[in-house]
């Protein structure tokens, strides 16, 4: 099930960025499950990764290779197996995957970054995975079809591929940003099980590339949650080919930042719309906070409440569940008399209790919608935050109960 079905967008070619996918049979036959992304020589790459202490072997190796000083040239992504919780064997397998792709492509092993997604605690089927690499390399090409097939090749429990693209005008030049992502469950990034790969033809210094990735991830992938579980494998990679317009002036940086944020946000929201078993897309806006962290704490407390999420699924205007979740958020010196809560255009709570004009009929009408905005005003300061989440359905339980069967 998915909320707000959307078609995969057209993705302009980014010269030098090629993508190839193969049906290696890592978990199931006749489905794309192995993807290779090639960056041109001279490209710069930035990465953001999970904060889960049990990070997967490919996360450890990708971090090591990015820090090695060797320019990243290839990304290799497998589905069907997370290579997480696999100890030294997992590290050995991740490095062996990089070494084999490097041999086939004629680059250093540290120039390859590995990524995996799937079941935790099982070792990679290395013979099958390595046998699929030549086909993925042979399929490398530029253009929209290659992006689409790669987006299909990184899916696990997702119901559809996810992509976003923008073209920006910078004076007389244009810049393109393309991105694909996967994620549907185990989503509460502290970067979800989520992976995202974004590329641009713009030219950026490494420090600026790293900074923009951190900023845009913080306001996109780190603002979504399906179930409150931070995966072992989360990663988001940004490739700059260095072949296009130079992003240097304050004006150019502002334009590029806005475009990159748009791509990241569209991909993050697509993950929520495709959340496991989701029937509702929920936007939680918290304003009037003393700090952004405080606003996020309130938003995530509501977003993670099973009682709120099941009420959303049932289209039950049980507004007391929202009020209770706000009240238990980790906020010091909370003055509930200043809090206002709106469900869409309907005021639920004000002055410490139910709003005088509230009716069950009006609340139920909003809860019946597929897209539901909830606005919480704390009346404490000027900071705000927005978080996107889903309801919690019977199907979510079924998907995760049957995940390994």
| Helix and strand sequence | EEEHEHEHHEEEHEEHEHHHEEEHEEH
**Largest sheet geometry:** 7 strands, mixed
Q: Rg, please?
A: 22 Å
Strand content: 15-25%
Estimate the mean pLDDT confidence: 92
Uncertain segments are none
Number of H/I helices: 11
Q: Which structural class should the secondary elements be placed in?
A: alpha+beta
Shape label: globular
State the share of residues found in helices, binned by percent: 25-40%
In total, the number of strands is: 16
Strand order of the largest sheet: 9-16-11-15-12-13-14
Separation, N- and C-terminal Cα atoms: 19 Å
Throw out a few tags for this protein:
34% helix, alpha+beta, 405 residues, five-stranded mixed sheet, seven-stranded mixed sheet, 16 strands
What does this structure look like?
This protein has 405 residues and is of the alpha+beta class. Helices cover 34% and strands 23% of the residues. Helix 2 (87-105) links the parallel strand 4 (74-78) and strand 5. Helix 5 crosses helix 6 (250-273). The radius of gyration is 22 Å and the shape is globular. The two termini are 19 Å apart.
Summarize the SSE layout with pairings.
Blueprint lengths: L17 E5 L11 E5 L5 E6 L7 H11 L6 E5 L8 H19 L6 E5 L9 H13 L5 H10 L8 E9 L2 E10 L12 E6 L5 H13 L5 E2 L9 E6 L9 H24 L7 E9 L2 H12 L2 H9 L4 H9 L12 E4 L2 E5 L2 E2 L5 H8 L3 E7 L5 E8 L3 H8 L4
Parallel strand pairs: 4-5, 8-10, 9-16, 11-15
Antiparallel strand pairs: 1-2, 2-4, 3-10, 6-7, 7-8, 11-16, 12-13, 12-15, 13-14
Helix pairs in contact: 1-2, 2-3, 5-6
Summary of the model, kept short:
The chain is an alpha+beta fold. The chain is 34% helix and 23% strand.
């Amino acid at each position: 099930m998915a909320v707000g079905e959307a078609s995969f967008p057209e993705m302009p070619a980014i010269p030098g960025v090629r993508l190839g996918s193969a049906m290696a049979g890592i978990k199931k036959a006749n489905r794309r499950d192995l993807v290779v992304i090639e960056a041109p020589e001279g490209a710069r790459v930035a990465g953001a990764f999970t904060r889960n202490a049990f990070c997967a072997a490919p996360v450890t190796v990708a971090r090591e290779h990015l820090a090695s000083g060797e320019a990243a040239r290839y990304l290799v992504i497998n589905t069907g197996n997370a290579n997480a919780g696999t100890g030294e064997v997992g590290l050995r397998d991740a490095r062996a995957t990089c070494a084999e792709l490097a041999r086939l492509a004629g680059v250093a092993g540290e120039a390859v970054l590995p990524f995996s997604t799937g079941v935790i605690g099982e070792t990679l089927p290395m013979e099958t995975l390595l046998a699929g690499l030549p086909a993925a390399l042979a399929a490398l090409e530029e253009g929209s079809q290659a992006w689409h097939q790669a987006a299909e090749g990184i899916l696990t429990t997702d119901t559809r591929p996810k992509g976003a693209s923008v073209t920006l005008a910078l004076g007389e030049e244009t810049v393109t940003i393309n991105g694909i992502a996967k994620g549907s469950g185990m989503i509460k990034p502290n970067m979800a099980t989520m992976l995202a790969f974004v590329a641009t033809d713009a030219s950026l210094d490494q420090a600026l590339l790293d900074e923009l990735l951190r900023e845009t991830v913080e306001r996109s992938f780190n603002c979504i949650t399906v179930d409150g579980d931070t995966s072992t494998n989360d990663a988001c990679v940004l490739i700059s080919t260095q072949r296009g317009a130079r992003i240097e002036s304050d004006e150019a940086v502002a334009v590029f930042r806005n475009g990159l944020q748009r791509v990241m946000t569209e991909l993050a929201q697509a993950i929520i719309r495709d959340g496991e078993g989701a029937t509702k897309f929920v936007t939680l806006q918290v304003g009037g906070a003393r700090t952004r962290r405080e606003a996020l704490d309130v938003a995530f407390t509501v977003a993670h409440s099973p009682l709120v999420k099941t009420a959303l699924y049932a289209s039950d205007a049980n507004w007391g569940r929202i009020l209770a979740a706000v009240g238990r958020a980790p906020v010091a010196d909370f003055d509930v008399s200043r809090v206002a809560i709106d469900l869409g255009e309907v005021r639920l709570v004000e002055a410490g209790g139910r709003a005088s004009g509230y009716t069950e009929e009006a609340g139920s009408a909003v809860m019946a919608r597929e897209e539901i905005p909830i606005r919480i005003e704390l009346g404490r300061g000027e900071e705000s935050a927005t978080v996107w989440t889903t309801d919690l359905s019977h199907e979510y339980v079924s998907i995760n109960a049957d995940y390994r069967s």
